[in-house]
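Bug report (template v2)

What were you trying to do?
Predict the complex of my protein with nicotinamide-adenine-dinucleotide.

What happened?
Run completed; filing so the output is reviewed.

Input:
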Amino acid sequence: MTTTHSPIAVAGAGTMGSDIARLAAFSGFRVLLYDSNAEALERSYERLSKSADALIEKGKISRVKADESLKNITKVNSLEGFSNCGMVIEAIVEELSVKQDLFRKLEGMVSKDCILATNTSSISVTSIAAACSLTSRVVGIHFFNPAHLMPLVEIVPGMATAPSTVETAVKLIKSWGKTTVKAKDTPGFIVNRVARPFYGEAIRIYEEGIADFATIDWAMKEIGGFKMGPFELMDFIGNDINYKVTETVWTQFFFDPRYKPSLTQKRLYEAGYWGRKKGRGYYDYSPGAPIPEPKKEKKLGEEIFLRILSMLINEAYEAWYYNIATRDELETAMTKGVNYPKGLIQWAEEIGVSKVADKLEQLQHTYNEDRYRPSLLLKKQARP
Ligand SMILES: NC(=O)c1ccc[n+]([C@@H]2O[C@H](COP(=O)([O-])OP(=O)(O)OC[C@H]3O[C@@H](n4cnc5c(N)ncnc54)[C@H](O)[C@@H]3O)[C@@H](O)[C@H]2O)c1
């Protein structure tokens, strides 16, 4: 069993692993931070120290607390010391064979009570666990980036995960101040699945020539109340990451047209226009580059908003219908995981479930594409 006294091991000291290590350390846990790349480990440790300095400067923590917390983290370049850990959280490269290889090795290093968790965002937990002989202790613990700040964590049991493993994971992650939701081991879990149309439908509207990036972003912020528009958000996440997640979800859903990636984003990905981090994405971030002006036409904006929102609501109903999560968990996931202004099911009820069903049926009729098929649950609720 994991107790506050058992150290946590974090495997992979990249973006996610470093922040997970910091979260655990600042919650009072001793942490072993492991990476197969010695330089990555050094870089991570330097970043952790720098970000602690920034917190001290802002007056968010004291020097004593920061030093104490950072002292909780020990850099390690082998799995040798993992034998007394209560949990290992894996955050290495997103490749099944590499993850399986690590899990196989971990099994030989940890005690039989140690939980093996993966932070994968797109690989099935069951397939990672398949590399282990004790599959009941393997669970998905999916943090959002940045892990120490984002409040949501999706807990994903695989096919053979024991209820006690899930319970321990939930308890531990809650004790780190996070909100947890349980999700079925299906592509994209909750957030990365339900949010797909926010990006995909926005790109589709652009590709059809209905509106440009700035206008679509304006509509979703001004009329929809979203904090960022789809194109701003994709540039922020990175078109490399966002494109790959879309492609993976689409492939894993056996090429369901609902999740089909767009050629526009694929080309951006290929061109290296990955967004803010590259200075170029849907927008140009170079100094002095002109900022495109949206066409602030209310009727056009409302059309765009209703189309994208209807697609998002449809995805939430479909996930609800297939028991990916409960209604409450779906609502919590979208408000806390991606900061949506309200839960999508509540939103549907407020604007009228039949209005959403009508919009989807109109799109399905117009385009004659399965992409727009309304969820059975949405149809049932729209026309009881
Ligand atoms: N970046 C995100 O926004 C995000 C969000 C949620 C989940 N995730 C998931 O978290 C995991 C890590 O993502 P990231 O963005 O932190 O990646 P990253 O590339 O920043 O870091 C990965 C680290 O793993 C190390 N590594 C690679 N193979 C290893 C091995 N066999 N053993 C030990 N270390 C190894 C690399 O040296 C690197 O330091 C992935 O599974 C990803 O899907 C990422």
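What did the reviewer find?
Residues 220 and 305 are 6 Å apart (CA to CA). DSSP finds 17 helices and eight strands in the chain.
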